[in-house]
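Question: does this match?
>
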Amino acid sequence: MNTALWIVAGLLATVFTIAGLNKLILSQETLAKAPGGGWVLDFSPRFLKILGTLEILGAAGLILPAVLGIAPILVPLAAVGIAAIMLGAAIVIYRRGEYAHLLINIIYLSLATFVAVGRLGPEPFII
């Protein structure tokens, strides 16, 4: 179980680092051209930068506290934050009627929930 939690946390950290960097680096228009990216036009560029920053912080929070042995309780809290972001994303995509892209949000939400529950409960950190 510990190995599975590490793998999922690593996968989520990678995905959210890339997604966050894209939101910080790319323009809103460029993001909107990506498949499933039309939602960015519903939000301000400032919101996208804040969201990108939160995604990067969440990604770091999934890995660094446990690896460094400093406040590992931050890992499940970061997973809860990532899950909250993905719940919001799923709601936005659902309201836009873009059901084909909804599944990926639900998968990431499920993976973040798995990490949060696993690290809060049955499998605290073993490095």
User: Anything to note?
Assistant: Residues 2-120 form one domain.
